[in-house]
Amino acid sequence: MSLNDWILSLHLLSAFAYVGAEVVFTAMIVSLWRTESTRRVSSFMGISRIATGLVLLGSLGTLVFGIWLSISKEPYDLWDFWVIAAIVLWAVAGGLGQQAGNAYGSAGMEATRLATSGTETNPALAETFGASRAFWFHLVSTVAILAILVLMVWKPGA
Amino acid sequence: MSHVLANIRPDDWNFALFLHVLGAMLLVGSVVAAVGALLTPTIAGDPVTLRRFAFRTLLFAGLPSYILMRVGAEWLYSKEFGDLPDDVDEPAWVGVGYITADLGALLFLIALICAGIASAKSKNTLGRVAGVIVAIALIGWLVAVWAMGAKPD
Q1: A85 with A152: CB under 8 angstroms?
Q2: Which of A10, A77, B18, B46 is the 20 to 30 Å CA partner of B148?
Q3: Which of B152 and A138 is assigned the larger pLDDT?
């Protein structure tokens, strides 16, 4: 096995971590859709922390190992259309994902604070966990990641 | 030159590969969600909510994703190795993929049943057992991801 084989493996594992985390967040958003229950939202804080860690590992790993491969592996180059497009989409997905994560994370911490103090419901949670700006950011971020996967498989311009 | 050729894949394999990888990624994500829900301690949260979430994620996201991954894999296999003569062995990474997929499916189904019962009957220990079983399947599938990339001989 060559060094490039190992780098490709790490690139793939990073991509699985990134997409896996997106799936976890999507499942949580579906499960908490329009909920007002502080206890329900608070239940997901542990999983949310795991998914956040996976996003950090996965997004950095895909970029670093991906750029390495595009430079070291023939017949690809860093300036190939599909590589540049993937990096742009990676930045879009990361930026929007972070915005969504901040909004959901703040709502989750507030829900935990209210749940531990005995407050059972909060109407503001239903807004955040409905068709909010955070939701649309998450959706666009997910579509961008899906588009990256399409680029990685079809490699247009390679 | 052989290294260059090895990187070139016929275009008509792409859709099968896309389905296979997408299914595998969705499967891993679904299982991570379930493992997190079943094994992460919660302080102010509701364990019943988490057990139900884990079961539904495995059933409605994990199971269809596994089928998608497996259909994509078989389709890709038929394109890549369909014409392989009987006396020629498949590469080792193909074997790793099949073993982890089959054993993982068995563990996944056992965990799905355990998570379903744990969710319906509110059994915390059974929920944790389901979490451990599906976590073992997850480890196997991550080994398969490594093998698909590194392609060991």
Answers
A1: no
A2: A77
A3: A138
**pLDDT tens, B75-98?**
999 998 887 777 778 889 999 999
How far apart CA B44 and CA B77 sit, in angstroms, is: 48
Nearest to B22 among A1, A10, A149 (CB): A149
- Ranges of residues in chain A with a pLDDT under 50 are none
Using the beta-carbon criterion (under 8 Å), do B149 and A5 form an inter-chain contact? yes
Of A27, A112, A154, Cβ closest to residue B57: A27
Distance CA B145, CA B153 (A): 15
Q: Tell me, yes or no, if A136 comes closer than 8 A to chain B by beta carbon.
A: no
Are B7 and A76 a contacting pair at CB < 8 A? Answer: yes
- Average the pLDDT over B68-73 and give the result: 97
Which residues of B lie closer than 8 Å to A, measured between beta carbons?
3-4, 7-8, 11, 14, 17-18, 21-22, 24-26, 28-30, 32-33, 36-37, 40-47, 49-50, 53, 56-57, 61, 142, 145-146, 148-153
Q: For chain B, what is the mean pLDDT?
A: 91
Residue of B nearest to A43 (CA): B45
